[in-house]
């Protein structure tokens, strides 16, 4: 996953859920545990990922290990874009 891709995701999270204040958002911060994103917000993130990176997120992929932090999303997108 290229760094610029994760920066796009980070900026989306900061703009959409943190109202522009992303100082505390680290690459391994759990969105759910920290209260940044709730279950409804995850749907917004999925929609963004599908639109921005031309991937499809299957129901079976809706797991915290895929979507609960910037690191997890980076690994997930890397796998999706490599065709795994």
Task: Walk me through the topology.
Elements: H1 3-17, H2 39-53, H3 64-67, H4 70-81
Helix pairs in contact: 1-2, 1-4
Largest beta-sheet details: none
Number of structural units classed as domains: 1
- The number of helical runs is 4
Low-confidence stretches: none
Name the overall outline.
globular
CATH superfamily: ACP-like
Pattern of helices and strands:
HHHH
Helicity level, as a percent range?
40-55%
Reported CATH architecture: Orthogonal Bundle
Rg estimate, integer Å: 12 Å
**CATH hierarchy class name:** Mainly Alpha
Global mean pLDDT: 91
Structural class of the helices, strands and pairings? Answer: mainly alpha
Separation, N- and C-terminal Cα atoms: 14 Å
Beta-sheet strand percentage?
under 5%
Which short descriptors sum up this protein?
Non-ribosomal Peptide Synthetase Peptidyl Carrier Protein, Chain A
């Amino acid at each position: 996953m290229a760094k610029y891709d994760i920066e796009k995701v980070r900026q989306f999270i900061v703009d959409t859920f943190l109202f522009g204040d992303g100082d505390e958002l680290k690459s391994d911060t759990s969105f759910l545990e920290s209260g940044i994103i709730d279950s409804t917000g995850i749907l917004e993130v999925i929609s963004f990922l599908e639109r921005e990176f031309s991937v499809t997120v299957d129901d079976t992929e809706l797991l915290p290990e895929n979507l609960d932090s910037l690191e997890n999303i980076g690994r997930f997108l890397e796998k999706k874009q490599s065709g795994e």
